[in-house]
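cache lookup: miss for this entity combination. No prior model stored, computing from scratch. Input as submitted by user K.M.:
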Amino acid sequence: MLTAEIIAIGSELLTPERVDTNSLWLTDRLNRLGIEVKLKTIVGDDDARLEEAVRDALKRSRIIITTGGLGPTEDDITRKTVARALARRLLLDERVLQTIRERFIAMGRAMPEINARQAMIIEGAEALPNPHGTAPGLYLEHDGRAVVLLPGPPREMRPMFETYVAPKLEAKGGGVRVVRRILRVAGMGESAVDERIAPVYTQYKNPTTTILFNRAEVEIHLTARAASEQEAELLLDGLAGQIEERLGDAIFAFRGETMEEVVGLRLAVGGYTVAVAESCTGGLVAQRLTDVPGSSAYFLEGVVAYSNEAKTRTLGVPPELIARHGAVSAPVAEAMAEGVRRLTDADFGLAVTGIAGPTGGTPEKPVGLVFIALADDAHTEHKRLLLPGDRQLIRWRASQATLDLLRRRLI
Amino acid sequence: MLTAEIIAIGSELLTPERVDTNSLWLTDRLNRLGIEVKLKTIVGDDDARLEEAVRDALKRSRIIITTGGLGPTEDDITRKTVARALARRLLLDERVLQTIRERFIAMGRAMPEINARQAMIIEGAEALPNPHGTAPGLYLEHDGRAVVLLPGPPREMRPMFETYVAPKLEAKGGGVRVVRRILRVAGMGESAVDERIAPVYTQYKNPTTTILFNRAEVEIHLTARAASEQEAELLLDGLAGQIEERLGDAIFAFRGETMEEVVGLRLAVGGYTVAVAESCTGGLVAQRLTDVPGSSAYFLEGVVAYSNEAKTRTLGVPPELIARHGAVSAPVAEAMAEGVRRLTDADFGLAVTGIAGPTGGTPEKPVGLVFIALADDAHTEHKRLLLPGDRQLIRWRASQATLDLLRRRLI
């Protein structure tokens, strides 16, 4: 299998705030072309260290991709430093210079002299056009290695890779295609999922299976290799089908969709409407549902009834019910779901009440205790949950379980 | 200045999904100790490449920190590979083994034999206790370099660094302390902020100033170096004071606090209550306000009035007003703010209505048009915004502006 390494260049990438997201995107694209990323280096605007990183990379990898450092300023050292590491000259490319000039003219400005530097091309390299910026990329082959220099801004880097680099690397890759699929699971823990599906996925070397715990969700990542995307998809269909047999409804997404997208689609297709009454989640369920474009077709109203008065006044929860069972209880959750449904005339009323912490817990009602409820015209159901995690995680998990309750009803 | 490099180990860090967040945290801590991070390498569970990475690091850096690969399985190669790169032996440490055994006994289990591997210590290294897991860290000095091996899970890595590693590195750092402060700005663009404060901050080499655009917020990062934290804080106070003179109320946080924390604190201190009526933000304003622990003291109720019926029914917005001006209009925003205040008897009623897109825009009312309003017992005000960005960004920016409207009233 072909291997690559990525060198991200820029002193800002060595601060506590900035993540090198380019390499994640590139890794995904490279993987799809059957190319594995074996190493990533992040280096500042530092001649000596960059030259060393490129030299080291040339020794061990067939494909080397750099991002960043192609701008017009002194800090932008990638062109000259990579040239030095390759022992090649930098030459001014008149055609590239003309393109950069024209770009400035089109913006109604004269080209600043420093931008001429961006027309310097490593001897033997091909300049890769950049319709979204002034810095061209570079592609060259050196001792059987492919060396690719890409600009740092994602909106310049991504289309350049797709248009000019991917086809070249695909030709090198020997026709292997790698396709990934993400299955998402609700209401089950990581080890429970693994126990259920290990007998299936361990029988396959292709696709490979990884179980990840991402925030409060279990994700099953399937990766298939084949001569074509279609063939890889068929392999994925086969394994995904067997996993579905084992997990059933617990899988809510087969293509990486979010819970709110899945629920939204089912509501839209069925022509149903929904309204939400929330306490401990503080608006998160409504916010997730309305994150989906077009959600106004099915989302009618949300009530964040944080105080007991709000539960009574807006949702019509009887004060006696709260006095008898407490605000965090199954009867109150059900009354909230019925109340918001009555208020809005929605097909479904969803409700959640609980203790997100860090304070407010008692021995009988600890932090993490959450009741969720769903009401429709026929009946009302509830579920009691005891969720681990900090305040934010409890709120997120509660919102996920609430949406999942509706999803299961809609199946 | 002392320089460090970080090597993150684990094949999962070379997938498209996983970011090496440990190195961000470590960079922040190292910077505070006056140590600059000059290079980061991310390598898989791959003996040859890891050994090379460690050898290269020893050639150029005074401090080398690895994270990950200290687990008990075959995949966990850090101990043995670093030992090889240093040409040192691995020795079983009976005391460490005993600690691991006791940890399992405390959990009511026998230690699996493979965990004995975690008691193998590189010759001459100090084992760093791990109260949150079985893998001890390692610290050693080699040819004047500090080599530190830390576990991958953040909840194990972070306290281990703070307790055992930071004091050792501090001693090496020659007493330079670096302190950072984050000022957050609302309602101004990046270049407007820069124009206003450049005449001030360019006069200082210490602290240094960086202006960052983070999501929809402008952040001003100040970094001071001094012999002590107190001295650095004084330098920061001086510059922050001058920046405040230039920006005034636009700065909402001087210590990196979030907008919802700042607003929440002011509400709590003043003994005020708030209620929120939202349309395009779909619950985000309520969710952000209630993200703050203890927010039940001031947050009474939120209404996500997505449909026109909800605006009329729950908030009492006159249907004629919606018919005449449209749901996205200043009069409707004000009526929503007054309505939710009337409904809940809160001191402040906040409202937001707008077009988050991607659809629903018209030439007169384009995507990004948002009206926000604030009502108290004396009067009601509104603001018209035209926000750039995609759906999520427009929603976030609208929520930020809404909270900021209340913040400015509370000053």
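stored under new cache key. The longest helix of chain B spans residues 391-410.
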